[in-house]
């Protein structure tokens, strides 16, 4: 039930695009237009797993999963597109 934050270690600007995936399903994104923050089901209408439990930091792109559940166990992938593109993978284990 505790929250967990997956950090990006960057600062988002208008040239930054961020995509978060859980087991190859996009769950959140930030586009260069910061008004287009896309949490959860707005990205993938078939995904109800995280309904109302994801928070996306508009300044850093870090993803927080609130009220974690055993079903949140798995691989989370982060794709960052900016001056230098990068990828990160997080393995989340819930007890």
UniProtKB/TrEMBL annotation:
* Pfam families documented for this protein: V-set
Q: Where is the Immunoglobulin V-set domain?
A: 4-94
Q: Which InterPro entries match?
A: Ig-like_dom_sf, Ig-like_fold, Ig_V-set
Question: Which Gene3D superfamilies is this protein grouped with?
Answer: Immunoglobulins
Provide the protein name.
Immunoglobulin V-set domain-containing protein
Species of the source:
Cirrhinus mrigala
């Amino acid at each position: 039930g505790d929250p967990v934050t997956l950090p990006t270690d960057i600062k988002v600007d208008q040239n930054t695009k961020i995509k978060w995936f859980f087991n190859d399903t996009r769950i959140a994104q930030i586009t260069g237009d910061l008004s287009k923050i896309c949490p959860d089901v707005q990205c993938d209408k078939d995904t109800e797993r995280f309904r109302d439990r994801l928070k996306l930091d508009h300044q850093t792109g870090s993803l927080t999963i609130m009220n974690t559940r055993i079903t949140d166990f798995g691989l989370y992938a982060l794709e960052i597109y900016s001056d230098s593109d990068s990828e990160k993978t997080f393995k989340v284990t819930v007890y």
